[in-house]
Amino acid sequence: MKFHYATTLEKHNWVGGGLDAYIYHATPTIVVKTVRHDRTPEENTGEHPFIKEIAFYKPLNENSDRCASIVECFLTLPDHLFLSYCPNNSIAPRLYERQERHAGMNGFHGRLIRVKEYEDPTLIARWIQQITSALEYIEKMGFCHNDLHASNCLLDSDFNVRLADFGRATTIGQPLEGVLPPRAKPILAGPLKGTYGLCSAKTEQFAVGTLLYFMVYGHEPYDGIVLSAAEWDRRFGEMNFPELDRNEVFDGLISACWYDVYPTMALLAYDFKRKTKNTICNAEYLPIDSAKETKTCKELVRRGLLGPDLALCFQPTWRRYLQVIVKRGMSMWQFILQKISWTRVS
Hints:
Layout: E1 13-17, E2 21-27, E3 30-35, H1 41-44, H2 51-62, E4 73-77, E5 80-84, H3 91-96, E6 99-101, E7 112-115, H4 121-140, E8 143-144, E9 153-155, E10 161-163, E11 170-171, H5 201-217, H6 229-237, H7 248-258, H8 265-276, H9 290-302, H10 308-313, H11 317-345
Antiparallel strand pairs: 1-2, 2-3, 3-5, 4-5, 6-7, 8-11, 9-10
Organism: Penicillium steckii
Protein name: Protein kinase domain-containing protein
Keywords: ATP-binding, Nucleotide-binding
């Protein structure tokens, strides 16, 4: 099917969105993530939704050794991010499609009844190696992702994972915010009591354990029962985890993450790779010409994809000066014509 090109961003195909942003398919290989213009006044008073994401991508793009397991960002603007497109959605829909559930309400999934089919272990091994490799790279940069779940693990044309959505990424050592069980474990005693800890390998690996559980068992922990927020905190705070009895290798890795075995994400990635090497079905990432894609993004803005004001900013210097001169000239002629009109009337 021929790709649908449009003159403005909102006329392109909408491919996703969340509380703060919408994502549009701008070219066959590029999507544009844009801040929602229909945010409420209360939402607009908070931190700009792209501040953390831009703060992460700026140092990432300065590195010469890019990580293939992270979604590339070709161009950052205050309200727009130009990102690499992953045509096979994310891991989450694949897993949810294999579940039988009660009817949900208001866009939420209903209670789990059963898992009809489980994911291929060779794919799980490949994905968890790629995800942990990305987290190891992020740790080397001095960051934590802080929002690891199946919906943020996008799948490219060859079903390789590219980790996305760095809207909660922070430097290591910041308080973990906006994350709850089963992806975080509350601290029940000590100086950090009542929090979910400081962003570190401890918090990241706990989320890895829960994500791997979802992939192996086909559902989130305790997905078949209704728990209050207090009960979620109690169970995970007291390390009352679901029984693990499906795959010896994967179960051991899940348990290691939930019990905070790994002091760094580098050691976690090494151990995951070592223990899943006999299961994995390897696949190479197709190379992305980042310089070419960045040039394409700038050309899209120059042509007016994001409106005339931004288009002017991306014009050559001589053309910007020419437009200023033309505008001033037009204003001068309008003033002269108006003066002539007043003289004739008087």
